[in-house]
Amino acid sequence: MVDELKAWRKKNRITQQELAEMLKTTNVSIARWETGVHPVPPFLELALLELERRLAVNPLPEKKTKRKEVKKNGLHRKKTRKMGS
């Protein structure tokens, strides 16, 4: 069920935070279920079926995709030594 949870979430374009809000839990719990740190609770399969039914009737609004900004010429500063050190 671990792999299926993440696949279900991706298929439905739902973030861990959004799923957590829908299930009245935390995004940390979702992440732990997805990574196998904690076992997936037995109710989850039924809850996901119900969420999928609800999403079919009332889909989430489209999300704007964020462009990853690439910083050119980095903002790294050279380390300087203090005089007398």
Count of helix runs: 4
Strand content: under 5%
Global shape: extended
List low-pLDDT spans. Answer: none
Quantity of strands, as a count: 0
Structural class: mainly alpha
Radius of gyration, in Å, reads 21 Å
What fold name goes in the CATH topology slot of the domain at 2-57? 434 Repressor (Amino-terminal Domain)
For the biggest sheet, the summary is: none
State the fourth-level CATH superfamily of the domain at 2-57: lambda repressor-like DNA-binding domains
Give the CATH class of the domain at 2-57: Mainly Alpha
Report the end-to-end length measured between terminal Cα atoms: 58 Å
Overall pLDDT metric:
83
CATH architecture descriptor name of the domain at 2-57: Orthogonal Bundle
Residue share in helices?
Answer: 40-55%
Order of helices and strands: HHHH
Description:
The chain has a domain at 2-57: 434 Repressor (Amino-terminal Domain) (Orthogonal Bundle). The N and C termini lie far apart (58 Å). The chain is built from four helices and no strands. Helices cover 48% and strands 0% of the residues. The chain has helices at 2-11, 16-23, 27-35, 44-57. It is mainly alpha-helical.
Write the layout of secondary structure elements.
Elements lengths: L1 H10 L4 H8 L3 H9 L8 H14 L28
Helix pairs in contact: 2-3
